[in-house]
């Protein structure tokens, strides 16, 4: 049942493009859940299998990390209200300078134009009016995130739809401390600044209690990559209750979801 505070977005579709399993929950979990609760069709596109992540839990006999991460992605997608999950099938490229950057199936080696065309074709098939992807630095300069930014920006141009580039508020998260958000450690791994300054951000969305709970549940579903202790701490509400975007193109129905209500 659609919450009374939300507009009726039945019949509207949004594409959400991410690099790896778990990124969808960390950076856009609130947004996806709110779109779904408003009746919109949420199509999640994951570019890589995330096979270069380090397994933090034991795998089952004969189970691969790739298989576990796909299972976690499917579970998180269900929690966040995803209607369709699309896998682009590329390999994880790893961090800057890793030899895996040069693997022929790595996302970094995929032609941007051809991959963007695949995404644009999905937008046309789904009659999507907008796409979410990453900001110009891939939030924290992970090579696959930067590739997803370029793919998403070009796909939006090809499909003639608005793009909303997911980012984080650098000032807000820096104020909370160096381990308040998973992006802090991620940025240390790439030796790069993360996110954007508040003046560069077009809009932010703030979670309700239910949305924040869904986001946490989706994040910890990725147990092979994220420990409960890494996010289930006192600073979690302050660090994760916002999601931030830059808009490129005309305003869309996304702006109808931004007004704050019943905030956590």
Automatic annotation (TrEMBL):
<keyword id="KW-0862">Zinc</keyword>
<dbReference type="GO" id="GO:0016811">
    <property type="term" value="F:hydrolase activity, acting on carbon-nitrogen (but not peptide) bonds, in linear amides"/>
</dbReference>
<dbReference type="GO" id="GO:0016137">
    <property type="term" value="P:glycoside metabolic process"/>
</dbReference>
<dbReference type="InterPro" id="IPR003737">
    <property type="entry name" value="GlcNAc_PI_deacetylase-related"/>
</dbReference>
<protein>
    <submittedName>
        <fullName>N-acetylglucosaminyl deacetylase, LmbE family</fullName>
    </submittedName>
</protein>
<dbReference type="Pfam" id="PF02585">
    <property type="entry name" value="PIG-L"/>
</dbReference>
<dbReference type="InterPro" id="IPR024078">
    <property type="entry name" value="LmbE-like_dom_sf"/>
</dbReference>
């Amino acid at each position: 049942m659609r919450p009374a505070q939300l507009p009726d977005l039945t019949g509207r579709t949004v594409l959400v493009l991410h690099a790896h399993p778990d990124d969808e929950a960390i950076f856009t979990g609130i947004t996806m859940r709110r779109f779904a609760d408003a009746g919109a069709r949420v199509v999640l596109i994951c570019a890589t299998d995330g096979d270069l992540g380090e397994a933090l839990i034991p795998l089952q006999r004969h189970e691969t990390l790739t298989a576990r991460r796909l299972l976690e992605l499917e579970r998180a997608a269900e929690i966040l209200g995803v209607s369709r999950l699309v896998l682009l099938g590329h390999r994880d490229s790893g961090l800057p300078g890793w030899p895996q950057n040069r693997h022929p199936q790595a996302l970094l080696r995929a032609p941007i134009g051809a991959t963007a065309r695949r995404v644009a074709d999905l937008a046309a098939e789904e009659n999507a009016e907008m796409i979410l992807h990453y900001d110009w630095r891939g939030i924290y300069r992970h090579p696959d995130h930067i590739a997803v930014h370029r793919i998403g920006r070009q796909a939006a141009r090809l499909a003639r739809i608005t793009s909303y580039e997911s980012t984080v508020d650098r000032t807000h998260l820096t104020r909370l401390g160096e381990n308040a958000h998973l992006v802090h450690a991620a940025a240390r791994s790439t030796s790069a600044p993360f996110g954007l300054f508040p003046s560069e951000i077009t809009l932010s969305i703030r979670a309700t209690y239910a949305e924040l709970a869904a986001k946490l549940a989706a994040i910890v579903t990725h147990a092979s990559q994220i420990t409960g202790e890494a996010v289930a701490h006192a600073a979690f509400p302050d660090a994760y209750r916002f999601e931030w975007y830059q808009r490129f193109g005309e305003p869309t129905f996304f702006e109808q979801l931004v007004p704050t209500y019943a905030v956590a």
